[in-house]
Design goal:
globular; mainly alpha; 2 strands; 2% strand; 18 helices
């Protein structure tokens, strides 16, 4: 695709919510419902965005996450002006393939998802006492949003813009996810994906049947035995995708993130945590999950 066409699409929409210096931001805000929902929510919660130089974020983004959430200022890089200069110098010559591998991505969508999850509780809250679980809920919610947002990527420009704003872009799952959403209901489907990632972020390689049945009960679906064979197969298929996170990255990142948040826990103990009991016994966690699910459905995604 010609770079001139991408810049044209990038510049077509201008509203107060969009970031003109983030490639594809306006296009995604208009055409991607989860991206739009997350943006609306973080703005509602008092967060802002800044493309001012942030050397700490540039050097080690994860180390800046807590500062981002506390200051409510989400950093990003201006990756548009450099493309405009190329186009001005040589109009209609450059293609996306010429620049895609070297252009700096932005991950403000992922950071915004963390901000959404954090805004609903304080990690020191008396109602949500399990700090390890609270931190992994944030990461799992971000994973969930990035995975499910591919469902709206209907054209090449959407896929290009989304790849530039996301860690995960599994476009090949789009059709299967749409079918699963219709079969299970979007709210139930999203919650199953969320629990799949939460299980994965507790360093499990898969989810055992007994835990999967507990997950289904927590989503509000019927008892496992009352689901149709098709629904059971759908659930088992979609939740497997949550365990594709890179194992080395996941373990190193989780360990470092816990240290940054003054949480001392052995990695071997993460697998031993029965986090599902927290949801089953503490209604505050179910309320938190429902709040996060509402963020995703506020734009009519279920339809």
């Amino acid at each position: 695709m010609k770079l001139s066409r991408l810049l044209e699409l990038h510049s077509q929409n201008t509203t107060k919510e969009i970031l003109p210096n983030n490639l594809g931001d306006a296009y995604l805000y208009k055409n991607n419902r989860i991206y739009r929902s997350i943006r609306d929510q973080v703005l509602k919660n008092g967060f802002s965005f800044s493309d001012e130089m942030n050397s700490a974020y540039l050097a080690l983004p994860l180390a800046e996450l807590e500062n981002i959430l506390q200051t409510k200022k989400i950093p990003y890089f201006n990756n548009v002006d450099v493309l405009k200069k190329i186009e001005q110098k040589k109009p209609h010559v450059a293609t996306w393939e010429d620049v895609r591998d070297n252009l700096k991505k932005n991950f403000l969508f992922h950071e915004s998802c963390h901000a959404c999850a954090r805004a609903y509780y304080n990690t020191d809250s008396g109602h949500l006492k399990n700090k390890v679980l609270n931190l992994l809920i944030e990461e799992s919610f971000a994973n969930t949003c990035e995975l499910l947002a591919v469902m709206d990527a209907e054209d090449a420009a959407h896929r290009i813009f989304y790849e530039m704003n996301s860690y995960t872009a599994l476009f090949e799952l789009k059709t299967e996810f749409k079918n699963a959403s219709r079969d299970l209901g979007f709210d139930n489907f999203a919650k199953i994906i969320f629990f799949g990632y939460l299980h994965s972020n507790h360093l499990h390689d898969y989810i055992e049947d007994r835990d999967l049945k507990r997950v289904v009960s927590l989503t509000g679906l019927k008892d496992w035995s009352q689901l149709s064979d098709k629904q059971q197969k759908t659930i088992k298929y979609v939740i497997k995708n949550c365990f594709q996170l890179d194992e080395t990255f996941k373990q190193v990142t989780t360990r470092f993130y816990m240290k940054l948040n003054q949480v001392e826990i052995e990695h071997s103990d993460l697998k031993k945590q029965d986090y599902l009991s927290e949801f089953e016994q503490n209604s505050a966690y179910i309320k938190h999950l429902n709040n996060l699910s509402e963020v995703l459905t506020q734009q009519g995604i279920a339809n």
